[in-house]
Amino acid sequence: MALDTLTDMRRMTRRQLLTGATALGAFVIGNGYVTAAKADWATEMVAMKPEDFATLIQMARDIYPHDRVADEFYVRAVKSYDVQDKAEMAEAGIRALNQRSREMKGEDYLDIGWERDRVDVLRSMEDDDFFQTVRGGLVTGLYNQKEVWPIFGYEGSSYEHGGYIDRGFDDITWIG
Known about the structure:
single chain; alpha+beta; 4-stranded antiparallel sheet
C-alpha cells in the first residue's frame, strides 16, 4: 500500500500502517514516513530517507534528553532538515555518524540499544560541523515550542504583562 499523504495515513488502521514497515530502534520506518510503535504521531518525509530522519530524531533526543518530552516535539525540532537544500547535508552527517558508530560500537547509531553508548559516539563527533549544526538548531527548535514550556515550568514571555517583577519572578520552586 503506497502512502501518498499524511491524511491517507490517518485513515489507515494500525495493521495497515505497520504492514511493510520495519522497526528500527524505537521507530517504525515505512515507505516515506517515520513513526514510533507506541505513538500517536507520524511524519511524512519530503527529502530525507526515513531511516536517516529516524536517526536524526534519536540523535536529537540523545543530545538534549528529556524523558518527559514526547518524541513528537523532537520531530518538530528536526523537521527543518527534511527539505531539499538541507537534506543532503543532514544525510551526509548521518552517514558519518553511522560510520563512526560502526567503528566504535560495531553497529549503526540507531541500532545501539544503550543511550550511554550512543552518547559516547556523539561525544567523539562533538567538534564536527554536523553535530554543532544539529545541536545549535535544537536549542531553538526544541525549546521554542510553547507546548514544551509547561514541562520545564516556564510561563512564557512576561514583557507584555509588565515584566517578571510583578509576576512572581522568585516563585520558581524547582531551582534551589
